[in-house]
């Protein structure tokens, strides 16, 4: 693509939404509040002094301080997974020009689930690093398959065709997952907790495995954002601006699958985060992806972390898995969005 499709610094400043700074400040405050809530609330709430001891006084060995330290990895993992899913949703909506595109709606999560359960059943995999590569492969193959089906027929890949193709593929793959698990009880025992979607089993080792995928995916997202803005004007206009639309879609979709697949491998198929975060950001700041992508990352981190806290409080003294909470919130919102937008393309 040529330089005409990429805004310079003066253009970026002139196109910055007037209320962007205030929105950013509010999101940072909400992010901080969600982190504090994640550390403080659960089956055993901690006092303020225990929170301080757990975070800043490693020599203190009280029960409350140890609980806080155990929750730190879970909180960090929630933030990273939420950010990855938020950016993935923004990229998938931009690539497909579909306001309802989301890893869970397009069947990408289910594809990752199928490959993970196949790995458990036939390859005896158990580690997070092995989950990631299988989940990435499943997510990528499913994304290509759904887009291929949605592109068939008259009119190409329209928003409604992509959503229907994703729903159909997701249903078929879910049936395959069930067929593999039913005769293998050991697979069902290992897979069922992962399938619901949870950040409760987060470890620093898993976070370390996840970080490289998060960094690469986010960097690609930022690099492709200006060209994706041109793509939103239509393929013909984007081509006239020097954008190689096919290459751009491939690279941006690859980043989306990378982020979604890695998050799904470690946390399970958590749905609706990408859809919710990106829609909220677009509603407030507009469609410019230079702002939508970073703010979707922050919004996704907030939504997932708050949902995890909500699941802990609602399920007390146990906990309700975060995948259940996000589905409970996201499903009615998806219906409302579909009714109001009438599934228009971006």
From TrEMBL:
One of its GO terms (cellular component) is plasma membrane. Belongs to the binding-protein-dependent transport system permease family. FecCD subfamily. GO terms for biological process: siderophore-iron import into cell. Its main location: membrane. It comes from the Bacteria. Keywords: Cell membrane, Membrane, Transmembrane, Transmembrane helix, Transport. Signal peptide: none annotated. This is Iron ABC transporter. GO terms for molecular function: transmembrane transporter activity. Gene3D superfamilies: ABC transporter involved in vitamin B12 uptake, BtuC. InterPro entries: ABC_BtuC-like (IPR037294), ABC_transptr_permease_BtuC (IPR000522). It is found in: Cell membrane. It is a multi-pass membrane protein.
């Amino acid at each position: 693509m040529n330089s005409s499709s990429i805004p310079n610094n003066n253009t970026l400043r002139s196109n910055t939404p007037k209320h962007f700074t205030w929105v950013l400040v509010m999101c940072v405050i909400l992010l901080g509040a969600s982190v504090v809530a994640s550390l403080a609330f659960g089956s055993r709430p901690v006092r303020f002094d225990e929170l301080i001891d757990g975070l800043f006084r490693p020599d203190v060995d009280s029960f409350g301080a140890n609980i806080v330290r155990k929750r730190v990895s879970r909180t960090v993992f929630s933030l990273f997974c939420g950010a990855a899913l938020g950016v993935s949703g923004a990229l998938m909506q931009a690539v497909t020009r579909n306001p309802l595109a989301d890893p869970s709606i397009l069947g990408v999560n289910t594809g990752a689930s199928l490959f993970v359960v196949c790995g458990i059943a036939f390859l005896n995999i158990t580690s997070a690093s092995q989950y990631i590569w299988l989940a990435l492969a499943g997510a990528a193959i499913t994304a290509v398959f759904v887009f291929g089906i949605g592109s068939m027929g008259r009119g190409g890949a329209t928003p409604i065709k992509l959503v229907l193709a994703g729903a159909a593929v997701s249903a078929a793959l879910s049936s395959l997952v069930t067929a593999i698990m039913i005769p293998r009880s050991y697979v069902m025992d290992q897979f069922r907790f992962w399938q619901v979607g949870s950040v409760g089993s987060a470890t620093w080792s898993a976070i370390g495995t996840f970080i490289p995928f998060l960094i690469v995916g986010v960097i690609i997202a930022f690099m492709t954002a200006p060209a994706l803005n041109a793509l939103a004007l239509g393929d013909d206009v984007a081509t006239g601006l020097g954008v190689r639309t096919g290459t751009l879609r491939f690279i941006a979709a690859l980043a989306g699958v990378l982020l979604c697949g890695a998050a799904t491998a470690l946390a399970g198929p958590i749905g609706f985060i990408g859809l919710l975060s990106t829609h909220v950001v677009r509603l407030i700041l507009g469609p410019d992806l230079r702002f939508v992508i970073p703010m979707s990352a922050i919004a996704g981190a907030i939504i997932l972390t708050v949902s995890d806290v909500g699941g802990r409080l609602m399920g007390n003294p146990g906990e309700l898995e975060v995948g259940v909470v996000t589905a409970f919130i996201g499903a009615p919102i998806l219906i409302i969005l579909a009714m109001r937008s009438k599934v228009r393309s971006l």
